[in-house]
Amino acid sequence: MATISLVAGNCGRGRGCEDRRSEFGSNSYFGKDFLASELLIRSFRRANGYWSKALKGSRNDNGKKFRVIAKVKKGKKYDYPWPDDIDPNITDGHLTYLSYFKPLDEKPKPVTLPFEKPLVDLEQKIIEVCRMADETGLDFTDQIGALENKYQQALKDLYTHLTPIQRLTIARHPNRPTVLDHILNITEKWVELHGDRAGYDDPAMVTGIGSMDGKSYMFIGHQKGRNTKENIFRNFAMPTPHGYRKALRMMKYADHHGLPIITFVDTPGAFADLKSEELGQGEAIAHNLRTMFGLKVPIVTVVVGEGGSGGALAIACPNKLFMLENSVLYVASPEACAAILWKSSQAAPKAAEKLRITAQEHYKRKIADGIIPEPLGGAHADPVWTSQQIKLAITQAMEELTKMDTEELLRHRMLKFRSIGGFQEGKPVEPERKHNMKPSDASMLKAADIESDLERLKKKILEAKVPSDPITDQATEKLKQDVDKEVTRAFISMGLQEKLESLKLELSRAPDNQHLNRNLKEKVDKLMHEFKQNLSRPGAYLGLKQKLEKLSMVSRLVELKEKSEKLKTEINQKIPAEVKAKLEQLENAQEGLLKGDPLDEDLVAEAVKAKKELMEVLKSANLEIVGVRKREVTAAPPEIQEKIVNVNKEIGGEIERIIDVAGLRGKIEELKAEMAKGSSSQKAEELETEIKEGILAALDNTALKQKVEKLRTEFASSLEVATDDKVAAENGRW
């Protein structure tokens, strides 16, 4: 909106100026100002947005001057929810213009969840085949149909065996229909009501009156955004105390006018910032809880996404509670629970199983009164169909509840919540009992303990003289029993115990002398596939995974040990008696050499010959020799050790003599002084090089060199004889 202000003045010499001002627009006003005309004109010319011009013929017959000064004002346009170009001839649908919730200009981008990756590959194949058909003009109808059938079967298998953490990701899907989407899909008329009558309207909580099948209801629910901008505006469906007080006002309004209440839950929890706590977040939620149990109208609640803690419960104390198939309801998010109990949010899948957050678990424990089905792929795959299923469930529940009088309605609501949970009578309770939320360290199997147990068992297996050792067999059997117990617990926690028991019963009825029929084999494969899929989730069943890895390692070691013993027996049978005698003689010589016996040159030659004969035997057994490993000898024989000490003394004495003869003593002292200074100068390096060259030039003792060479030969020969040639074999390669 724009307005124009005009200032018109008649100015005469020696007289005051009579000013007439008028404004054309939404407001008009008149007044008189006494101004100095020249100062006024100059100041207005300097001001932004004003203009001044002397009009033609502005001087009248009386000699008075007339000037016009104008300013254009831009008013703020109010952001109404209805457009500027409404058709004046419309006869219905007026209420749609009152809602700020409009269809999105752009279609939401498809989002693929982590567990849906196999479906993406099939979709890509279908797209490629369709593109190929368009480009080539060939008929690929059969191939496309087969791929689509395969895709539908994979989608069905995936969404009929979802884990709790997978259902949680579906409940948090960015494209999942929001509360207002469902309300607009199930109502013929809808008008949203705003404000808590305390100066605030929380956009995270939506309320309003709508009609279904000609009957009016009060709708209340958490509203998430459909994109980032809306999520920020709606505060990600986390209400402040104003939102809960707004919902409370509408509940009292509905109770006063006799309108049944329908609430929709879709929130991660109440907004827990400092300002909300200062404004009484806990008090607002508690007030809602107390008030809902006293309302005299029917209340039906539908959990359409995720329901977090008291933030969800503040509008969810109904006579009937329904949950969508992939919705969740929890007292704490799995990520928060995992961070508290397991000190890492990576254990969220395990926490989701323990918390029992799914609709199926709540229905089993009689917290939820019914499960509303969703299409394959989640509610976002077909929002309208999902909304109609919600409408059907609400309508049936309202038909049942509206037949009750006020007393029956209140008692029905009270008994619903009193029946949740369980208790025991006649069991003594300890007066003071300490509860430790963290599992006992004694009962927890740490990774370090598993590694030590595995190394200890591995050592026993490798050191066993025979393949079947009683101690090793006992430890392996105990490990198998532990794994069996863990697997049974895993089947129970996955909800597969009933399927397992029924499958065991069918297997027991099958004849022993016949193979499994195709139907039974498919059931077994399907159950094992489901079990492995649940087991492979990150952070789930860590103890069982560790024990399975340990058992697998032990089984491989036992198998390798048996193969090794079997192969050793076969080789011993193929080695001639003469070679065995030579090998035994070499072992005796080795023991004597370690005791200090003199080295026999003939025995060294025999050792080399026996080695060659043994390699020929292995080759004749169709075994390929890939390497020969020598056992390290830590110490030389005593006789050679004594010779080494004597030779070192002779070398040291000879070096001292050369230093005195060559006159290098002074240079050595000079080098020590330089090094004592901590200097790494070029002078120190030159002194060190000069001393080394002088010693090497003077050290020309032929007899000493011969002693060193002889000692080196003797030491090498003793090592060759003292080493047991070890041949390692695996899978026919030696």
TrEMBL record:
Signal peptide: none annotated. GO terms for biological process: fatty acid biosynthetic process; malonyl-CoA biosynthetic process. Residues 146-400 form the CoA carboxyltransferase C-terminal domain. PANTHER family: ACETYL-COA CARBOXYTRANSFERASE, ACETYL-COENZYME A CARBOXYLASE CARBOXYL TRANSFERASE SUBUNIT ALPHA. It comes from Theobroma cacao. It catalyses: N(6)-carboxybiotinyl-L-lysyl-[protein] + acetyl-CoA = N(6)-biotinyl-L-lysyl-[protein] + malonyl-CoA. Its EC number is 2.1.3.15. Pfam families: ACCA. This is acetyl-CoA carboxytransferase. It is an enzyme of class 2 (transferase). GO terms for cellular component: acetyl-CoA carboxylase complex. GO terms for molecular function: acetyl-CoA carboxylase activity; ATP binding; carboxyl- or carbamoyltransferase activity. Gene3D superfamilies: 2-enoyl-CoA Hydratase, Chain A, domain 1. The lineage of its organism: Eukaryota, Viridiplantae, Streptophyta, Embryophyta, Tracheophyta. Keywords: ATP-binding, Fatty acid biosynthesis, Fatty acid metabolism, Lipid biosynthesis, Lipid metabolism, Nucleotide-binding.
